[in-house]
Write a structure and sequence with these properties.
This protein has about 80 residues and is α+β, with helices and mostly antiparallel strands. It has one domain (about 1-80): Baseplate protein-like domains (Phage tail protein beta-alpha-beta fold). The chain has helices spanning about 10-20, 50-60, and strands at about 1-5, 30-35, 45, 65-70, 75-80. Strands 2-5-4 form a 3-stranded mixed sheet, with helices on one face. It has a two-stranded antiparallel ribbon with strand order 1-3.
Length: about 80
């Protein structure tokens, strides 16, 4: 998996689609992105043989978001600066 200057929205959509393709039940991952953060943040990374959750965690970290697991979805929330 490789992202070159992708937005968080683009990266999340890619992970949603890919997780659905690879899931035997074709359910994939349900990922919610809460509003906020910097929409101009870009993600550039290259990963190989990494589980989808880890890829999502890296994307969240690079884009300044926190990843949490809800009951039915992974949730990305912008980090709050103090």
């Amino acid at each position: 998996m490789q992202f070159q200057e992708a937005t968080l929205t683009e990266a999340v959509e890619f992970l949603r689609v890919k997780s659905r393709e690879l899931d035997p039940e074709k359910k994939g991952m349900n990922i919610l992105v809460k509003p906020g953060g910097n929409p101009n943040d870009r993600i550039t990374m290259q990963l190989k043989d990494v589980p989808a959750y880890e890829a999502l965690r890296y994307c969240a970290e690079i884009a300044g978001h926190q990843l949490s697991a809800g009951e039915n979805a992974f949730i990305l929330s912008p980090l709050v600066e103090k």
